[in-house]
Amino acid sequence: MNTFELVIFDCDGVLVDSERIANEVFAEILRDSCGLNLSLQEMFSTFVGRSSEQCVQIVTDMLGHPPPTNLQQRYRQEIETALRRSVTAISGTRNVLERLQLPYCVASGGSYKKMHITLGKTGLLPFLDGKLFSTSDVKQGKPHPDIFLHAAKSMGVTDPAKCLVIEDSVPGVQGGINAGMTVFGYAEHIDPQALSDAGAHLVFDDMLQLLRLNTGQWPKVCKKNKQA
Predict the structure, then answer these.
(1) Fewest beta carbons within 10 Å, which of 21, 118, 172, 199?
(2) Residue ranges making up the domain that contains 185
């Protein structure tokens, strides 16, 4: 296997269980403000890994016209309240951050404020001091490679092939691949086949499997994706 010099984690849906909360809040707003009725699974497949601007464009395409002008502001206010109240860490992430014997950082499509809220609430922030990077730092978000290349360079790694990306969204997987990095797809809420089809080198569903990297092994393939 590759000898990695850096592990780059996405934040939402990889370190913290925020995607479910975010999509429940967004689905309620879309029903109330736009008359769109989308299931939670439809929300995940449509919006996870997209920037706020991309989400607004998707909603515009669905409606055939722009959504209410206060859509983004309302979402930011309601999701912040919901995350402060109930976000939790993805099972196993604390153990991984404590015991992983490789340098690591976070490359998120979320804002620094959001990362500080979610990682602070879950107690993971102390492990990531000085290791947080947001797409607000770069020209283009995922699926473009900018954020991953920026994070690697900031962490002192100049060869993308020496980086391992952990992502749970199709745009995130595509961004890591476009950066020339190895990408593992974490399939808790997302269809594992979708992550595999996006180019993930491996799809897994147990975060503690990442500790196998300490012994030079890759995680075991997700049971739901063994045929891939």
Answers:
(1) 199
(2) 6-17+88-225
